[in-house]
Amino acid sequence: MASRRALSHVVSAFRANKDLVHARYHQPRSQLPAHLGSWVQPARPISSNNCLAANAAQAVGKASEEQAEHPAAKPVAKPAPAVTGSTAAEARIRGHAAESEVVAKAPLESSRAASQMERGFQSGLPPSPSVVVIDTLELLRGFERAGFSAQQAEAITRATLAVTKSSVDPLATKSDLERHILGQLSELREFKQDIGSRHREAAANSKHMADMVLAECEKLRAELRYTHEKVTSSQKLDLNLERGRIRDDLTAQDNKMAAAEARLDREMAAMRTTIEAAKNDVIKYAVGTIMSFGALSLGLMRLLG
């Protein structure tokens, strides 16, 4: 009965410390990037006064107190093993713990350590695994004080170690997150440098293209100015030639008109002279004719009379 109560206290202690474990080990391995999930190790070390061991010892103490308060319900248990058996169990527990644990590196404490970790992250080497430290000796003795035999205490301690390791195995450590943050910062710096270089290169290319376009525009402007001046000069020359030709034509027409007018004047003067001469002749012949008819009339009248 007391053994069941002790086990129930141990289970309740582990359940009570579940939130504390998750608070210490922040992030599951499944939420890390793909390049970190393959080498994420258990969380950073827990001190020797581990809360799990302390709560387990408290649970064992409570079980022993309840067993002392209710001696009638005390089960028939084997006598306490000798010191040699306990020492051998402790040695086996220590050996098992020594085989399953790896020494952890201390967290980052200076910029030099941070730079070394960043270089290690960039080189792709996996980080050193951390250690979950539990005072197995104190836990084993607590179970023995609760009335468990050496073999039972050893089995419970091994189960406690296995549960603790399995509970913290899929979790990432703060050092892993710091490595990830340092790697992301390094990649961000490289990205910023790449963006800056690309921006400078694009700006230089844009400036070069703008200079080329300006040069082409100046060249086209010069060609247009030259073509305009050439066309203008040719048009001015053609206009001057046409103006001179028209002036010559007008002068020739004026000369022709003057010659025609002079000829008409001469012809009119000649016709006037001819008419005057004909008029004089007509008058002269008329007067002669009249005088002739008068003389004839007088002669006839004289003859008849």
UniProtKB/TrEMBL annotation:
Signal peptide: none
Compartment annotation: Membrane; Mitochondrion
Descriptive protein name: Mitochondrial protein
Transmembrane region(s): 282-304
Organism: Micromonas commoda (strain RCC299 / NOUM17 / CCMP2709) (Picoplanktonic green alga)
InterPro entries assigned to the protein according to its UniProt record, in alphabetical order: CCDC90-like (IPR024461)
UniProt KW keywords: Coiled coil, Membrane, Mitochondrion, Transmembrane, Transmembrane helix
Compositionally skewed regions (Basic and acidic residues) per UniProt: 63-72
Stretches with biased composition (Low complexity): 73-83
GO cellular component, one term: membrane
